[in-house]
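Recall that a protein's primary structure is simply its ordered list of amino acids. Everything else, from secondary elements to tertiary packing, is in principle encoded there. The following example makes that idea concrete.
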Amino acid sequence: MNIYFIEWNANYEKLMIANLSKLGIKEKNNVMKHFTKNNIKLKKLGISNKLFVKIHHFLKLREIKHDDLIICNGFSVLGCLDLIKSIDCKKVLIIRDTIIHLEKGMKENKKWLLPKDDFINTVRNQFDIIYSFDPDDCKKFNLTFLNQFLPYTNKNISDILKDTNSLE
């Protein structure tokens, strides 16, 4: 079984994945490149996106197998949800923001969620398990609670402290 982090692009996320890569963890970035905007255009025009999704799946995700695990984050998942749906494997979603904050960003900023839609109902059936760091959201939306963790090693923290001290 391989484990893939899909579209985890923030610097601290990349650092976490780099630390986990020693354990065989892999990252898949650029999944949304040339996909999200064109997929949205097809949907708005009422044109089937099946062939478009199949092509992108083949180009970007074909090495993911049935017994693999993909881990997506709440912030980017809607941009590639149709691709995520096309993958036959185990799927986990980790939501770091509160659902209210995430929905607002998806509706107002990214425009990946229609005003009448809600985030959880849009993604729930696509994932085997959804984790959240917010205990209230877990209760309200029947999610699995995940304790906060620091994605850094002791060496990473030492390097950050050295960089910070050198600025003084």
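The CA atoms of residues 6 and 28 lie 5 Å apart. The chain is about 45% helix and 15% strand.
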